[in-house]
Amino acid sequence: MFKKVFGGLNKRKVKVFFLFLVCSFLAWFLSNLSEPYESRANFSLNYKNLPDTLLLGNNAINSIEAKLRASGFKFLYYNFVNKRVDVDLSEVMNESGNFTLTEDVLKKQMERQLSQSISLIDLDRDKLVVDLYQVASKEVPIKANLDLQFEQNYILQGEPLVTPNMVLVKGPKSEIDTLNVIYTSKIELANVSSDFSKDVLLVFPKNLSNSIFSINRTNVSGKVAKFSEKVFDVQIRVLNLPEGYQINTFPNSVSVLCKATIEQLKSITEKDFEVIADYKQLSGSNNNALFLEVTRKPEKVHGVRLLENKVNFVLEQK
């Protein structure tokens, strides 16, 4: 019977009817979505601007429910996106050991982040209690862990440069007080003959489980230069002679081998060195020779070495 009824209908008219029905529904749906509504929505919390003396605990509240007034379009949008608001902890208050943000402060922070077409009516709490605990903080120097194998006649010019060279650590005072230096992971380079630069991770002690670090990597760089050797003839100066005596050393000068870059050697002279012999150090078992020591040398040279470490002498009364 139904087949006969529907069969007698004009198929074209049926299609037009359903098209108008769909269009009417869409018009009604869109009209309703454009109307303002009041409803509740959940927001995930992203804590930021943590004070230096505080750390966020593991039990921090991670969401909040808010009552909003907005169009249906906005609420439909909120059903398909992750709603997140930043919580500025620089405004946190300490109330007898509990760290809180008042409802007014929290509302103002949220309103600044919501669209102008959305009104924040109410929150599900009159204050937000944040799980924070007090910590100490200090800056710790970073030291490069280098294993460099240079090509012949090449050296590292000066100290390696670490950038940044400090790390801020925050944690319980009993933990961070034991920390004096942070090392980088090991840098191994072979056949080095030119400048280098490496980004490396930092190695943190395992016993600092409750501490956090401001960075986890740094850059280590160094300047590499070709060096040469030069021998300088330096006069020997004797200290602490007995009163009324003078001394003659044989010889009266000593050869000093200096390793430095070629440019450095051009400006170095014998006057940049001082070699002394201390008469007070004369031992009874070896009283015919004085031991020598370099007490002054040019800065930033690769190495200085005496080619002879002792000298004979004759002590004469004045």
Protein architecture, described:
The chain has 318 residues and is of the alpha+beta class. The chain has four domains: 2-32; 36-134, RNA Polymerase Alpha Subunit, Chain A, domain 2; 136-226, YbbR-like domain (RNA Polymerase Alpha Subunit, Chain A, domain 2, Beta Complex), CATH 2.170.120; 228-317, RNA Polymerase Alpha Subunit, Chain A, domain 2 (Beta Complex), CATH 2.170.120. It is built from six helices and 24 strands. Strands 10, 12, 13, 14, 16, 17, 18, 19, 20, 21, 22, 23 and 24 form a 13-stranded mixed β-sheet that branches. The protein has a four-stranded mixed β-sheet with strand order 4-1-3-7. A three-stranded antiparallel β-sheet has the order 5-6-8. A hairpin with a 2-residue loop joins strand 5 (93-95) and strand 6. The longest helix is centred in the first third of the chain and has 23 residues, at 11-33.
